[in-house]
Amino acid sequence: MGILCRLLLDREVVQDHHLLHVIHDITSKVIDYIGGDGDEEVDCSLVYLVHRKLTQLTHQMTAIPALIYHSVQNPGLQLQLLRNLPCSSSQQSLLRRRLALAFFFHDPAYLSKDRQELLDMKAITRYLCQPRFIINSATNYPGLAAAIAILAIGLDNGDPPPMEATKEIITAFNNDLDMLAQRIKGMFTQIVDTGASQMRRTEAKEVLESFHSCLVYAVRTKQKPKGMMWEDDVGAEKQKLVMMNFIQRDNIVSNLDGSGV
What we know:
The chain has 261 residues and is mostly helical. It has 12 helices and no strands. It has helices at residues 2-8, 11-15, 17-35, 45-51, 60-71, 75-84, 90-105, 121-127, 141-155, 167-189, 199-219, 233-258. The longest helix is centred in the C-terminal third of the chain and has 26 residues, at 233-258. The radius of gyration is 24 Å and the shape is globular.
């Protein structure tokens, strides 16, 4: 598996569509074979030969991701690997997301987390307040762009609450998501790019803006109404009361003007 991942980091391999297809096919079978999603009746002789020498213990599904995690340290190469990993099955997608979050947080513990425990919006927002994500004269813009793109892969669809979830759970999910989106917006609004002379800044800003749009329009369970300051019912009632007071005050002023006072 380590050799396959190294091949996916080779640009010449990636640009050769036939060869890339073959590597994707083998990699997919390896991941599904380990995760138990593969068809047992499919001829996976190559995969069997590769894995016959590996241990059959339960930690097998985390051993290979750990090898990949410790082998690739550069954020740019990490992103390239993640983009080229196959993700046509649930097991492949889970492996890809685990790797992405492990790369982003610099924490191999994410390699063994269950799907339900993989995402914590509040933890992501707090992590984005670390010094390496603060926009200043020392910002590494290529590294920042790669880190956010890796985060986007790890976040995927955000694991929204099920349709039968209570309104409180959905509201809490959206509120946490809004805080993350606000942090991302605060980052790209601080990037001052002056065109072609600062392409790295421009590229980083575009990655942040694209991720922000994904959060707001794709991951959120429903689009936030324009001008809505609060998400819950109590906040909505407060906003309604503010608007009613404003309208009443405006009507009083209009009546006074009409009466000539």
